[in-house]
Amino acid sequence: MLSDCSNLLFFKKITTMKSTILILGLMFALVSTATMAQTFTALQTESGRFLINDNSVTPPVDEVTIGTLLSASAIKIMDDKKNLPYVDGQVQSFEMTVIKKSGNASVKGKGETITSEMKDLISTLVSGDKVYFEYIVGAFSNGTNIKFKALTFKIQ
Length: 156
What we know:
This protein has helices at 2-37, 66-70, 116-122; strands spanning 39-45, 50-51, 62-64, 72-79, 84-85, 89-100, 103-110, 130-140, 145-148, 151-155. By secondary structure, the protein is an alpha+beta fold. It folds into two domains: 1-37; 40-155, no CATH class. A hairpin with a 2-residue loop joins strand 6 and strand 7.
């Protein structure tokens, strides 16, 4: 009888430990999700304007002119609450891919800057071509790296 009672106590302790570990895991997942949900990326132009995809369509695509894309200077991590650049994180890398009627091309970027090589490629686009800023990785001061959704633009 005493053995059954100690087995029951042991089982309750293990069940309690499993529950605690599960709760801690869920709390960590919620904190990580909250950080990602509060930020997004946007393409910043030289005039300070931000180009943000219309998320009401799938996949999110915005139509822009070549001139607008040529004025792009950087990809910024944005604060969802303020719609301003997020001060605690910066884009570390991304890839710009163009889908042209005459063929596709891709250029990798380090940091947040839109390079002259990327702008040269943009200048060759025609109406209907698409530009993807994808594989965007942002780094935050707490050491967290987050991969963001692609920014997609179609040339008018």
